[in-house]
């Protein structure tokens, strides 16, 4: 079933009330990585001002310490942010759900690798040579900018704001945006000069573009002889540990390994606040599978899901994303295989359970010019925000590229084994290190040399055999020793034999879902942020409508203050201890009036508040409806626990306990 994507977002009328958004509708043409024009963030009743919305949101995010600019007292550095207590708690809850949803459900193997990575590893992966952005410099001030960002901003601004632009020129700029990522350095420079693009801050001339490697370089050890980098992703550690993980898993395929940790990218000119930073948290899954069998036993569980998908055909033809059935997309080949489709479905379920608006979540397929040459198929989970569509999760079928690249560079075979149903007769190249000759020659390094010899491909082995027959010896590089050694004719036997084989080896393919956790945190904040009028109707009050599983605290505890500052200390202590024993995150607040405490709690996004106004019973207030029920002191913690574990909903609680009027609580407060 196909339904057209709704371009007018239903949740923004309430969000837009944060600011004065009365006036003419903002006509925004958003051109992304294709010629498709996306609709603006708006509602059917009025316009939405993304910048003003962001200002209102950021006032809360920074004012309530969700985010803190790093090293603020020293003026900080752009692209670095700290999480304050509520922001950290939201992020921790997202990772907790991520582990439950993926690691526990799929029996994945979680590991932790170092952030400092030797150069040889990232040379093998291609990062040393290719992990670059193209930048230009303000020739007067020395400020740096990403060349493609300047060109993209110029095109978008002309398309959005220049009412005199001709149809021919508009088509040219749209076509340019489609191929922007494929432009060479020379072509970028030509376009910047052709359009007269200058430094955005000063309008000064710009230098010619040149490449800049995004990795943070360092030296390992005091001598400085060993170059290293802060890892730009977590995946390489998993690939390098494949053999150990494969053995640990009982040499069974498929299996998945995961890693959660910090990654580092030295962005040229970070912008978009917490969305583009220089240090961030990645959660990456590497699912290893036989390259000729990418079916998935649990695909039927997600096959019926329908959500917004944006295949490349729709992008290049100027259409919008549409609701598609995942099972049909796989059956038709739009999504390459079941395993890739399974993870797309699981990512959709994860993000929507977190609280991401399903109508502002789409899965966009990479265009042909975006995909690496070795990739089979790639999709990005993109979330619509006030900045536009933001990539938060990449789900890619990377084929066998990564394991082969590391195997070739290291000389260590990274392969899995398979048993044949019927034996096969093959002509096989047999490389046999002669251990009795290697031992005396290489002593403790014998194993390294033997493994390097066995890891040779057929072409290398044939050349070695010919050279040894002619010269009797040769120099052979052993990558694990990082040096050449002398191999003599009597140290290795190389021959071709016909033999029956009952099993073989192959290099597994990998399906990789990669999650930018920081981006998900920010997008969730945007999707959950709203306002509502105060009781007097004279101001708008901020509310984060986080689901309980993502909220910074499950509940607040508000002891009611009576005359002479007497508080319900014993009852509050009992409630707090029971909540703690049930692992319910909570916070006690005794300052200001009860009404103001509710306002503060709502602004933090805390879903429930317990008001202690008796030694025997309490009220529980729900944030979104502002409804209250009265429960006994002994029941309060178990009720919150049931909701935290999703065994009960607020509707269940509302139906099970006496309702409580907020007026009686407010009247008794702060006498």
Summarize, please.
By secondary structure, the protein is of the alpha+beta class.
Give a description of the structure:
The protein is of the alpha+beta class and 671 residues long. It contains 23 helices and 31 strands. The protein has 4 domains: 1-115 and 231-415 and 507-535, BirA Bifunctional Protein, domain 2 (2-Layer Sandwich); 132-213, 2-Layer Sandwich (Herpes Virus-1), CATH 3.30.40; 419-504, 2-Layer Sandwich (Signal recognition particle alu RNA binding heterodimer, srp9/1); 553-670, Anticodon-binding domain (Rossmann fold, 3-Layer(aba) Sandwich). The strands form 9 sheets. The chain has a 10-stranded mixed sheet, sandwiched between helices. Strands 28-27-29-30-31 form a 5-stranded mixed sheet, with helices on both faces. It has a 3-stranded antiparallel sheet with strand order 7-12-11. β2 (30-31) and β3 (37-38) form a beta hairpin.
Question: Secondary-structure blueprint of this entry?
Answer:
Blueprint (H helix, E strand, L loop, with lengths): L2 E2 L7 H5 L13 E2 L5 E2 L11 H14 L3 E3 L11 E3 L1 H22 L2 E2 L5 E3 H7 L1 H4 L1 E6 L6 E3 H15 L5 H13 L5 H10 L15 E4 L2 E5 L5 E5 L4 H6 L1 H7 L6 E10 L14 E11 L16 E5 L1 H5 L5 E4 H6 L6 H17 L6 E5 L11 E9 L2 E10 L3 H10 L5 E18 L1 H8 L3 H9 L3 H14 L1 E6 L4 E6 L3 E15 L2 E8 H12 E5 L6 E5 L10 E5 L9 H13 L4 E3 L5 H11 L3 E5 L4 E6 L5 E5 L3 H9 L5 H7 L5 H7 L3
Parallel strand pairs: 6-13, 15-17, 27-28, 27-29
Antiparallel strand pairs: 1-16, 2-3, 4-5, 7-12, 8-9, 8-10, 11-12, 13-14, 14-24, 15-16, 17-18, 18-19, 19-24, 20-23, 21-22, 25-26, 29-30, 30-31
